[in-house]
Design a protein that fits this description.
By secondary structure, the protein is mostly beta strands. It has a single domain, classed as Lipocalin (Beta Barrel), CATH 2.40.128.140. It contains 5 helices and 14 strands. It has helices at 2-21, 97-105, 114-120, 192-202, 320-323, and strands spanning 60-68, 77-89, 129-142, 159-171, 175-186, 218-230, 245-257, 260-273, 278-280, 290-292, 303-319, 339-351, 354-363, 374-384. The strands form 2 sheets. The chain has a 12-stranded antiparallel barrel with strand order 1-2-3-4-5-6-7-8-11-12-13-14. A two-stranded antiparallel ribbon has the order 9-10. The N and C termini lie far apart (52 Å).
């Protein structure tokens, strides 16, 4: 059974490598600036009466994401995550041609693979705008018991992961596609133990004693794709008392690689005053960045206040932090749950080019012997330059 699983996950990794390094025939084309023809409302702005902003290739969004289960009163399982992302409009901040060419192949735009255009294409291809992302991330997982040298039977194994991501985001007035290639490492080389020890020492919290038993080093390569489509039904609910506006999206996501292979579906709805056209992902995800969700529209006020609620269901074929490495023998001692559900809610505040949001997530069990469901908090701080 171990050999069968390794072969299955190795096949997934090989598939990812093939997708990433296959030569590109189509080259990236310049996007065309036009006036939106959609009559949909977004952030209180009618694109029918508002020209798209002039492209500013120097514009960028810097966002820091921070997840921690201490917001939920625990220190176990998914215990900490940190991500620093940088988004630029119109051109990549770090231009690696082979990386950008491969990202464009999966964007759903006119220069992407034909089947991607058919399945994930845009309603108005001529209106597509592109932005480019670069991110550094670190994730940390621990058992519930801190005192033992190895996790007690049935508890989550120690695991740390760190990686670098390159992403492309394509959008029109109705949808946004995000594709990210992430290169990372699981194991001691992710320095999760050092990070946790540093934080625990500052806060005078006892250290976890079992990091020597963590999942061993293994390089990871993953391809992520996420699509968000506007919930157009909410456009009919713009006359809410108190001048409150509503917007939201459905989303589907796919992951292929030796870190994670799986699919997810979900939705998010925002309600508030002067909803910002920019949006910072409320939680740390593989494609979490801050940017305009859709083309068109401008912020009409210096201040924005909003609340949000969302849900997500995911199916996982492989998770290296629960299943262990693909190319090495390592028994994690737990069995992964194939399906996981999440419900989250929070709020955000924007002033001019700065935004702060907090979201609390309630997640079902991720492995079969987990004692109870988990909750954790997520902070996101965004600056636009």
């Amino acid at each position: 059974m171990m050999m069968y699983n390794q072969n299955k996950y190795a096949a997934a990794l090989v598939s990812t490598l093939v997708l990433v390094i296959q030569p590109v025939v189509a080259q990236t084309s310049e996007s065309v600036k036009v006036t939106p023809i959609s009559a949909d409302l977004y952030g209180g702005v009618d694109p029918h009466n508002t020209l798209l902003e002039e492209k500013d290739d120097t514009k960028g969004y810097l966002t820091f994401f921070f997840d921690n289960d201490l917001f939920g009163g625990t220190d176990e399982n998914y215990t900490n995550g940190a991500r620093l992302s940088w988004i630029t409009e119109g051109k990549p901040a770090i231009n690696i041609p082979v990386m950008q060419e491969n990202l464009h192949r999966f964007s759903g735009g006119s220069d992407s693979l034909e089947w991607m255009q058919k399945v994930f294409g845009f309603r108005h291809p001529a209106q597509i705008e592109y932005s480019y992302g670069f991110a550094l991330s670190q994730l940390m997982f621990t058992p519930a018991t801190a005192e033992t040298k190895t996790p007690p039977p049935g508890e989550r194994p120690y695991a740390g992961w760190a990686g670098i991501g390159f992403s492309l985001h394509a959008r029109d007035t109705h949808a946004q596609n995000s594709v990210e290639i992430t290169i990372g490492v699981v194991g001691p080389s992710a320095y999760a133990e050092d990070t946790q020890n540093y934080i625990h020492d500052i806060r005078d919290i006892d250290r976890f004693q079992g990091w020597d038993s963590q999942i061993p080093n293994e390089p990871t390569l993953n391809l992520y794709f996420n699509q968000r489509r506007r919930i157009e039904l909410l456009d009919q609910w713009q006359n809410v008392p108190g001048n409150i506006k509503l917007d939201g999206f459905y989303e589907t996501g796919y992951a292929l690689g030796n870190y994670r292979t799986g699919v997810q579906v979900g939705f998010l709805v925002r309600a508030g005053w002067n909803l910002p056209v920019e949006f910072a992902d409320p939680r740390l995800t593989p494609t979490a960045h801050s940017q305009r969700i859709y083309s068109g529209g401008v912020n009409t006020s210096d201040w924005s206040f909003y609340a949000l609620v969302g849900a997500q269901a995911s199916g996982t074929l492989h998770d290296i932090t629960l299943d262990g490495p693909v190319f090495r023998n390592y028994d994690t001692g737990v069995d992964r749950e194939p399906f996981v559900g999440e419900l989250y809610a929070g709020f955000g505040i924007r002033h001019k080019d700065c935004e702060l949001s907090y979201v609390h997530t309630f997640r079902t069990k991720t492995f079969k012997t987990q004692d109870e469901n988990q909750s954790f908090g997520s902070l996101a701080v965004r600056f636009q330059f």
